[in-house]
Specification:
It contains 14 helices and 14 strands. The protein is an alpha/beta fold. A 7-stranded mixed sheet has the order 2-8-7-6-5-3-4, with helices on both faces. Strands 10-14-13 form a 3-stranded antiparallel sheet. Helix 4 packs parallel to helix 11 and helix 12 packs parallel to helix 14.
């Protein structure tokens, strides 16, 4: 198995911990361990008494129960806890596909969703979302992509990096299409519960389709990436068992302190969601106004969910070089769309408390530049 460089992580490795402002963060505002422990009386003492031995490989029973409560049809036995979402992607594809299989990936996407099946010997087709279509994917194109060898359909809604959210009718149509063709659906739902309008929230795929696998994580909606806890939820027992077997060759089990904190956090997840949703709702109008003021430089489609968006750069510049220059000059970090194989775009994040300050620094820097170049034809 030969993996290509993970471009998003290589880019962040150069800049993430030296830039003053992370204006491209994909996660929400974090909290401290102390802030989580105060949710329950006595939790601080219990945490200090936590044994640092091995944990149960599927995840602690209390944690799996807390995760199952997010869903409508899922029991704790239907949950497999991982060390972050990345490990879950790995164990799923290793468990679900074989060389020669065909996989359809909703793109642009987090790079490992495309790279892992390719490296495992599958052929990969992009079900591409386009700015010109307001990021709305073409359902007829999806049907044309399905082959006799298609095994997996990877979906992501709310979407990274565009913030697009499937309408409920479209989501159900896609799941019905997958079921009709016998496809495994892997549904990346790491931004679920962070819809800007809660009425737009979709049901989890695992609640709609018995064979679907839903992905969740502590980092995005809940703002706790340092716990390194993710999970899958599915009623597909055969896939879940194979994933558990693959996990025996990766982390085997998770961090006991992380599982303890994640359990408390999920029992009080409404507090985490409401705080992060209030930040997103405060910051997005500021971002919309910024892009309106600089319409000669950027095209912008406001996202419908999550803390990220994917504007298009109008300047005739190579976007990664432009992002490198921005961070060097202003210490504001934007993420070039080249890491998503969408080179005219860049990702912005608006789930952090200091986004208004970061945006002000970026705007002050842009106002010093002499150019106002024409847009691409």
């Amino acid at each position: 198995m030969r993996l290509r460089p993970f471009e998003i992580e290589r880019f962040y490795a150069r800049h993430e911990f030296t830039a003053r402002y992370m204006l491209s963060s994909s996660d929400s505002e974090s909290r401290s361990a102390r802030e989580i422990l105060v949710f329950e009386p006595g939790a601080d003492v219990a945490y200090l008494d936590q044994r640092l031995g091995y944990t149960e490989s599927p995840g602690a029973p209390a944690l799996r129960a807390a995760i199952a409560s997010i869903y409508g049809t899922i029991s704790p036995a239907d949950v497999l806890v991982h060390s972050g979402a990345e490990e879950a992607l790995w164990t799923f594809f290793e468990a679900a596909i074989a060389p020669g299989d065909h996989v359809i990936i909703q793109t642009p996407c987090y790079a490992s969703a495309r790279e892992l099946p390719r490296a495992l010997g599958a052929s990969v087709s992009d079900w591409r979302m386009r700015f010109e279509d307001a990021w709305v994917p073409d359902l007829e194109e999806l049907e044309r992509l399905i082959r006799p060898t298609t095994r997996v359909l990877y979906l992501n809604s709310p979407h990274n990096p565009t913030g697009y959210q499937f309408p409920i009718e479209t989501f159900r149509h896609v799941l019905e299409l997958a079921a009709r063709h016998g496809l495994l659906v892997f549904s990346d739902e790491v931004y679920r519960e962070l819809e800007h309008n809660s009425a737009l929230r979709l049901p989890a795929a695992c609640d709609v389709l018995e064979t679907a696998v839903s992905l969740g994580v502590m980092s995005k909606t809940y703002g706790l990436p340092g716990l390194r806890i993710g999970w899958v939820a599915t009623r597909n027992g055969a896939v879940l068992e194979r994933m558990a077997m693959v996990k025996d060759y990766t982390t085997i089990c998770n961090s006991a302190p992380s599982e303890f904190l994640a359990t408390i956090a999920l029992r009080h997840r409404d507090k985490l969601v409401q705080r992060n949703l209030s930040i997103v709702r405060r910051n997005l109008p500021l971002l919309n106004a910024f892009f309106a003021r600089h319409a000669e430089l950027f095209d912008w489609l406001p996202p419908e969910a999550g803390p990220i968006g994917f504007p298009r750069l109008k300047l005739e510049r190579e976007v990664q070089q432009w992002c490198d220059e921005i961070v060097a000059a202003s210490s504001v970090l934007l993420l070039p769309g080249t890491v998503y194989e969408t080179p005219r775009h860049f990702r912005v994040g608006f789930g952090r408390e200091n986004m208004p300050e970061a945006l002000g620094v970026l705007e002050a820097h842009l106002d010093t530049l002499p150019f106002r170049a024409p847009s691409f034809a």
